[in-house]
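Title: Prediction job returns without error message
Component: structure pipeline
Severity: low
Priority: P3
Assignee: unassigned

Description:
Job completed but the reporter wants confirmation the result is attached to the right record. Sequence as submitted:
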Amino acid sequence: MKNGDDNVAQLGGQGQQGQPILILPEGTNRLLGRDAQRMNIMAGKVLAETIRTTLGPKGMDKMLVDSLGDIVVTNDGVTILKEMDIEHPAAKMLVEVAKTQEDEVGDGTTTAVVIAGELLKKAESLLDQDVHPTVISMGYRRAAAKAMEILEDISIQRTDRETLVEVAMTAMTGKGTEKARKPLAELIVNAVKQVEEDGEVDKDHINIHRIQGATVEESQMIKGVVIDKSRIDRSMPKKVQDAKIALLKYPVEVKDLETDAKIKLTDPGQMQAFIEQEENMIREMVDKILATGANVLFCQKGIDDLAQHYLAREGIFAVKRVRKSDIERLEKATGANLATNLEDLKPEDLGKAGMVYEKKIFDEIMIFVEESPDPKAVSIILRGSTKHVAEEVERAVDDALGVVSATIEDQKVVAGGGAPEMAIARGLKDYADTISGREQLAVTAFAEALEVIPKTLAENAGMDSIDVLVDIRAAQENSPYMGLDIFQGKVADMKNAAVIEPSRVKKQAIQSAAEAAEMILRIDDMIASTGSGQPDMEGMEGMPPGMGGMPPMM
């Protein structure tokens, strides 16, 4: 390559006669070794600090305003991270930790990111002591594996209804649902138990409709499907008893020609015959639906105006352009089979429901399909006095649905209030004493990092974190279930206090946090193609306690 080429930039090193060897695009930034590690660790720490204050029953909320002025008020970790415009690549890796936690369990997103941030913080101290990043990574890996063993030992085998309600209440604590925690928890457990099949729970079969204009206590579960649609013709019946439901993927209309062919009509009679033929085709379609005995039709595609008229005249309750997800729930709830073609629609494909009706709630018109024999799909109607209240309640209920489902599937729970983290930290410190070499330092650092959870819970409740940690350590000499009771302001047996969580929440949080921290620590070279801009990749210390000060890296 020639020196001075506009399309290359200096990577490092010298060629003959001291000329720089240029192999990367101009404007490319590069950080090496300790600088790259320092910058990535700082990004992770800042991200963890940003959402740390939201942890626990007394955690604070964040207000997020986007470029259009839309407001989100929440203390849900993954929602905060999704709404923030994060650009730093290392910080994005921690956002992925939160998203994975949300997808796998539905709760514990803040816990996972806070632990990952603390692992990076402890690793920074070890790097300052000249412990090699690979040694730290290996130590973290061994510690995470041992943590899973300890977690298994302290897990409790429980899946009774009372446990499920307690798990749901714990997940919703501190998320704007305090007044209605118990009735909402009962509602959530009922919904999950209804859709459970052979110990498996598909959350997609539980549909949540958020409607403002009433208090949270007025939320309800419908044993069936609720669809935010209205019947297509006002002359159709508003309510159908003993419904026989047809589900159709095929449009009830004459398809347009897909070619550029033209039809030449030579007299008005031909035009009339053409129109009559189209009407006859539509009439035949409606007759095929009627022949099955259906009195309710849900169509995934469109329904022609003339077909609407014929259906209304026959007293059929019809809905068009129903979402695929709603069709799938209708199949589960009513036992109907989706017909992909009118020719395939048979009487045995019809689903059954005691009642199908249209109802207006606040300012939304909805269709209710209820009283099926054993519906394996349900709907939850969540109410909230304002839009923002209803949104936060929905996030809390979504978390609770996830943890109740996980408890049913795994049949294992752990105590909350920082008890499992402290018990694992205690076990890891004993385990560290059996390891020789510098990996012992990494295992100890991992143990200390887990203590950030009870420490943060105490800080967010306005308590002295040092005193709380000392008291929990002393109490856990007798029981691994001793943790911080936020509302009593003291150390207590969290199992007896009904503060319990699925063991999967802790397992996923610790594993994903450890893996993300390990990956970040092993990065010793950052090459960022930034185009014409020259972002400052140095001096992360001046960054404010948010993500806005991070350099834009793509």
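Comment from assignee: result matches the submitted record. The longest helix spans residues 268-291.
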